[in-house]
Amino acid sequence: MPPRQSKKFDRSIVEGPIHGAVWKLAWPTMLQNIIGGLQGIVDHAMVGNFVGYQGNAAIGVSWQIFLVVMVFISSLFTGMGVMVARFAGANEPDKVNRTVYQAFITAAALAFLVLAPIGYFSAPFLLELINATPEVRAEALPYLRIMFVFSFGMLMFFMLGGALRSAGDAKTPLRLGIALTIMNLVLNIIFIRGLGPIPGFGTMGAAMGTTIAGAVLTLFALHRLCTHRWVVGFHRGMRLSPDFEIIRSLFRFGIPTGIQGVAMNIGGVIMLGFVGSLALSAQAQAAYTVGYTQLFSLITWTSVGLMGAAAAVAGQNLGANQPERSIEGVHVATFIGIGVAVVVGAMFLLIPGALLSIFGMDDPVVFDLTVELLAYLAVSGLFITSALAYTGGLQGTGDTKSPLYISLVSQLAVPIGICIVIQATRGLTASDIWLAIVLGHVTRATLSMIRFRQAKWRDIKVEIGPARA
Question: What is the 3-state secondary structure (H, E, C) of the chain?
Answer without folding.
Answer: CCCCCCCCCCCHHHHCCHHHHHHHHHHHHHHHHHHHHHHHHHHHHHHHHHCCHHHHHHHHHHHHHHHHHHHHHHHHHHHHHHHHHHHHHCCCHHHHHHHHHHHHHHHHHHHHHHHHHHHHHHHHHHHHHCCCCHHHHHHHHHHHHHHHHCCHHHHHHHHHHHHHHHCCCCHHHHHHHHHHHHHHHHHHHHHHHCECCECCCCHHHHHHHHHHHHHHHHHHHHHHHHCCCCCCCCCCCCCCCCCHHHHHHHHHHHHHHHHHHHHHHHHHHHHHHHHHCCCCHHHHHHHHHHHHHHHCHHHHHHHHHHHHHHHHHHHHHHHCCCHHHHHHHHHHHHHHHHHHHHHHHHHHHHCHHHHHHCCCCCCHHHHHHHHHHHHHHHHHHHHHHHHHHHHHHHHHCCCCHHHHHHHHHHHHHHHHHHHHHHHHHCCCCHHHHHHHHHHHHHHHHHHHHHHHHHCHHHHCCCCCCCCCC
